[in-house]
Amino acid sequence: MEASSGEIDSAASGVVRWPVRVETGHYAHPVAPEVYDCVKFLLAREGSGTITGDWGERRFRMGDLMLVGSGLAIGGAPDGTATTSTIFADKDYVMDQVYWRYADVLQDRTAAETVMQRAFGTGAIMIRLNGPLAATFAARIDEIERAQTMREFHRMQAAFAEVLHLLGQLLPWSPAPSLRTLTHGIAAMVARRTATRPVRSEVLQVRNAIQCDLAHRWLVAEMATTAHLSVRQLQRVFAESLGVSPITFLGLLRTKEMARMLRDTEMTVGEMSRAVGWRSRSHARSVFAMSTGMTPEGYRQMVRGRDHDA
């Protein structure tokens, strides 16, 4: 059960935009299901009732913890009154935590996304906590909320990391074997890049060439020629240095430039798509939305709204 989107928007208006946010609500009436594009961790603090969503209905009582995947509706009705605290966590931020936690067996962040999908299964997991463990979760959630109020980002990160650590011991799935299964059979099992490994010079060559002519319809074969490598070698070098394929990297550069144009120019989406090398307006919108979580129009409205507020 969660506050309505209007309540959340107004509550968040005085809070910096962070990847993790907590809302505590007191309920005496049903809340209609709403969809959020984030991962939700909902703890029942007091009372009992029914949680409703795409998976159906589930009963909850004080101390229950529910995990809900992004893009799924969730609402509910209390038995009389109930109090819940919900952590709203950016799905990409959570995916990064999963990726680095199991980096020894994951090839890239795409595999981390698959792991999250498997973990949530039908979209929601209910965990019945005992008294002391529920109190520990509540304390960590309260710590996130205090850090949010005080705008202490790393304090928030530390408290959320403790939440994830506790969840890792409670989730009803065995991560390591399933992660190894995910990576088995992938054609190119390549070494991940670590933060301490320098980026290969070939990657820098390709990056510089792309940035000099972003509008060009780049093919992987052309990138490989620029780096004096075979296509297979280039793919391996990019995976080792950046953890992504050359095509994914190209898309990220185009998305970054398109975001700059949305902030700084009055160009249309069609004009921008041609300027950064995407084949059509619809393709540009699709890739931009996949990379940023919002449409180009939504992004422009957001950044200009912030400038106006400032």
UniProtKB/TrEMBL annotation:
<dbReference type="Pfam" id="PF12833">
    <property type="entry name" value="HTH_18"/>
</dbReference>
<dbReference type="InterPro" id="IPR050204">
    <property type="entry name" value="AraC_XylS_family_regulators"/>
</dbReference>
<protein>
    <recommendedName>
        <fullName>HTH araC/xylS-type domain-containing protein</fullName>
    </recommendedName>
</protein>
<dbReference type="InterPro" id="IPR009057">
    <property type="entry name" value="Homeodomain-like_sf"/>
</dbReference>
<feature type="domain" description="HTH araC/xylS-type">
    <location>
        <begin position="204"/>
        <end position="302"/>
    </location>
</feature>
<dbReference type="GO" id="GO:0003700">
    <property type="term" value="F:DNA-binding transcription factor activity"/>
</dbReference>
<dbReference type="GO" id="GO:0043565">
    <property type="term" value="F:sequence-specific DNA binding"/>
</dbReference>
<keyword id="KW-0805">Transcription regulation</keyword>
<dbReference type="InterPro" id="IPR018060">
    <property type="entry name" value="HTH_AraC"/>
</dbReference>
<keyword id="KW-0804">Transcription</keyword>
<keyword id="KW-0238">DNA-binding</keyword>
